[in-house]
Amino acid sequence: MGRVDGKVVLVTGAARGMGRSHALKLAAEGADLILVDICAPVEPVPYPMSGKDDLDETAAAVSALGRRVAAAAIDVRDGARLAEFTAESVATLGGLDAAVANAGVITSGTWDTTTADDWRTVLDVNLIGVWNTCVAAIPHLIERGGGSLINISSAAGIKGNPLTSPYTASKHGVVGLSRSLANELAQNSIRVNTVHPTGVVTGMSVPAMHELMATTRGDLGPIYQNALPVQVIEAADVSNAVLYLASDESRFVTGTELKVDAGVTIR
Ligand SMILES: NC(=O)c1ccc[n+]([C@@H]2O[C@H](COP(=O)([O-])OP(=O)(O)OC[C@H]3O[C@@H](n4cnc5c(N)ncnc54)[C@H](O)[C@@H]3O)[C@@H](O)[C@H]2O)c1
């Protein structure tokens, strides 16, 4: 028996990195998957996003585990398209039990180099995109008689991570959004929780921040230091938390900030 046997889970940002890891962990534990990723650049974010090949690779790996999968290239900023694809896939797969709002982007720089465009893009993807994912899932979770919304925040959703103001604000916003929905949806037996990882090596990168900390702002480095003696954690460590929140083991856990942060937020 898998820990999420027979459940259907929506995962956004599933083409690579932690989204792929969540999808594969859930599939290995018995879930069928609905996978979404933009598979295209996000301006003005300075590093490449996934391609369609990456999403196809995640979908193929889910199939290879013997689970059913529906996948599409969709921007989480397009709430209507996301809801439409979710509804189509739910009709095919026979319901929905959980959604992992994982798609996210980051920009970095000092206060005087951060632009309005940075702000709008990061909030649009990381905050309204999470909202759109919840809204796409909620009707199906209500129909199911309950479910789990798992919103991926960050250590930056708990502490004041510098040189990434829009990102830090967006990840704090995910907490407020989730707490609010947790109250509103409790009567429908829908649980809403956030997950707060410390650094994980993925395609997400912040070259400007590293450059600043290596040159003029070394004083800010300790804010990013984990308490436990590790520089970074693995995507699988975060997927274990996602699996727990998707499973019935967490059936009375709601409104929680689940930190998988090697202690960085207690420093
Ligand atoms: N990597 C870290 O150190 C770290 C730490 C804490 C939290 N997080 C969070 O974890 C989540 C996953 O990040 P990751 O590290 O795997 O990054 P990643 O860049 O490797 O993966 C993110 C995925 O999201 C997709 N994506 C981006 N914008 C999208 C959009 N508008 N619509 C649909 N898909 C979109 C990308 O194409 C990519 O496949 C993010 O929410 C991120 O903020 C990351």
Structure description:
With 267 residues, the chain is α/β, with parallel strands linked by helices. It has one domain (8-266): 3-Layer(aba) Sandwich (Rossmann fold). Helix content is 41%, strand content 14%. A 7-stranded parallel β-sheet has the order 3-2-1-4-5-6-7, sandwiched between helices. Helix 5 links the parallel strand 5 and strand 6 (190-197). Helix 1 runs parallel beside helix 2 (52-64) and helix 1 crosses helix 7. The longest helix has 29 residues, at 116-144. The model has no long low-confidence stretch (mean pLDDT 98).
Offer a quick outline of the entry:
Helix content is 41%, strand content 14%.
Write a concise keyword list for the protein shown above.
7 helices; binds nicotinamide-adenine-dinucleotide; 267 residues; alpha/beta; Rossmann fold
Number of domains: 1
Q: Can you tell me the residue ranges where pLDDT is under 50 for at least 5 consecutive residues? A: none
CATH second-level architecture = 3-Layer(aba) Sandwich
The SSE string, one letter per element, is EHEHEHEHEHEHHE
